Queue: 2 jobs
Job 1
Amino acid sequence: MNFFDLVFILSWAASAIAHGGVYTYSISGTLYQGNPWHIWDYGPFYGDGNSSGIPAGIPSIQRRWYFWPIYDIYSGNMTCNFDGAETNNSLHASVMAGSTIVAQYNALNFTLTTVDKTIWYHQYGPLLVYMAHCPGSSCEGFHGTGAVWFKIAQYGLTSEAPNLRGPWLQASMLTGENATGWPVSIPSGLRPGSYLIRHEVINLQSSKDYGPQFYIECAQLKVEGKGSMFPGAEYMASFPGVYNYSDPGLALAGLEISDGDLLPVYNTTIYPFPGPPVWDGEI
Ligand SMILES: [Cu+2]
């Protein structure tokens, strides 16, 4: 029995499981399928139970990802999930600087014999988007190592939220049947080239013992346009590296964000986003 089978069995015994990530990207009218993996490797338990709708190993713009949350903030999985590899014949999506990418989230529900695609459940915590320039003519072989990531957007509470119990934009954009999807504009002044885009959902409704849950997926883009801007070193961050458990926006993770008496730490509408400032590459 491998590690993942063991995790599934233990978790199944404890409660229903539903974790996930970006299933599709919509870019200028084209829908790109994501690349969740390892679902097809569960042998006697899950080998024939996959009904998640995405066949294994299709060429994709998305780096492979695994549905389980990342808890270890110092793990290499903080870069582009586990294992973050490109598919064979991986694709790059063409996107004009200034245009919008909409990511749609789903989760996977597990029993001992089935794997089913389901809706995204989490709704407490921020959404952050980073990009990294790929040094070659494509992103193949580039794994986002070092201080190469710059933040292009972050989303926290909705305007009507009275405190950190929300509602958060995660709920309206990602969660449930009526989720709008998560729109992100590529900075209009960004110079053309190959880039990884890294979507990150942080679930703050998590046991204090485990800390926040990170859901991270990367995809390959070919940015076009007439821009010539690129962020300076003060905007650059490493994953892993830039986050710590003591960061104010991460240290407040706990199940109490949703239940019981409102703790003082949640009684604010100012959420301290982790990571570097957002780079405003607009022209
Ligand atoms: Cu989850």
Note: The domain at 3-266 is CATH 2.70.50.70 (Coagulation Factor XIII; Chain A, domain 1).
Job 2
Amino acid sequence: MPPRPRTCFLKLRPPSSPLPLISIRHFTSSPSSSPSPLANQKILITGASRGIGQAIATRFAQEGGRCILVGRNRAVLEEVKGGLACVGDGGREHEHEIAVGDVGQEGFWRGGFRGRKDVTHLINAAGITHSSPLFTTQVSSLESVIQTNLMGTMLACRIVGLGMLKNKQGCIINIASLLGLKGGRGSSAYAASKAGVIGFTRALAAEAGEKGIRVNVIVPGYIETDMITAMPPSARATALNAIPLKRFGTPSEIADAALFLATNAYANNCVLNLDGGLSAM
Ligand SMILES: NC(=O)c1ccc[n+]([C@@H]2O[C@H](COP(=O)([O-])OP(=O)(O)OC[C@H]3O[C@@H](n4cnc5c(N)ncnc54)[C@H](OP(=O)(O)O)[C@@H]3O)[C@@H](O)[C@H]2O)c1
């Protein structure tokens, strides 16, 4: 008999929008089903307070992973952590952790993660964007985009990866963007940071692969999150029209791709685009 579906409502509070209810339909594992390869693995996810990072945390918790949620807002992370206990084999709330800080600051990583060897999977989803031409963008904005998106990813890999090196195994998944491969008006620093994430991932896959650590990158197109809610309606319509599938992706579709990369033992140096076909245009 197949397991019975259960519906669970997670209360999620993105800071910039009203409180939505997200319905997560899942199946409880039957006693005879084999355990997920992610069961009791320690998954560190940056940008876990909302959007893609939160969807990845939810998906991995469903598989029995124990999450460390990273973001800058403790209250929101606590709320996400509370929701994880309610999904699939999400475990008990106290089995997940939160770490509050700025991923672009080396001190955050050194203070919380130096010497820690229990993290099996690192997913770098924290990111910020800007929408302004280079010539009118403040230098401080250019710096903060690069510091968060590129330096944040490299610092996390450097400190958390040290623990993986000691264990001679680990899995790192970085989240880049199609803008890192294709140009786009008003996104010079963002595009540069994401091109950097792709180049960095490939170089690290060569270095770390031979030490048992797999490193891959997901390259999303437009995904329905807070990050794109500020798009003017006309830009949104133009973007939708350009996508062969005529819709934006969902955070859970990115989470499914992350799960594939996390569980496929031969995946290393994958540059996995998920853009509804936009990169073909
Ligand atoms: N949505 C898209 O269309 C799209 C497309 C391609 C790529 N991406 C990439 O996918 C990733 C996730 O994007 P999203 O759409 O889910 O964005 P989002 O909804 O705006 O979420 C961004 C996340 O990053 C965290 N964050 C930002 N700066 C941080 C910092 N300095 N330190 C720690 N955490 C920080 C935020 O947490 P707090 O603000 O609570 O700290 C939040 O959890 C990003 O790397 C983004 O560039 C998104």
Note: The pocket of NAP is lined by residues 46-53, 70-73, 76, 102-104, 125-128, 148, 175, 177, 220, 222-223, 225-228 (CB under 6 Å).
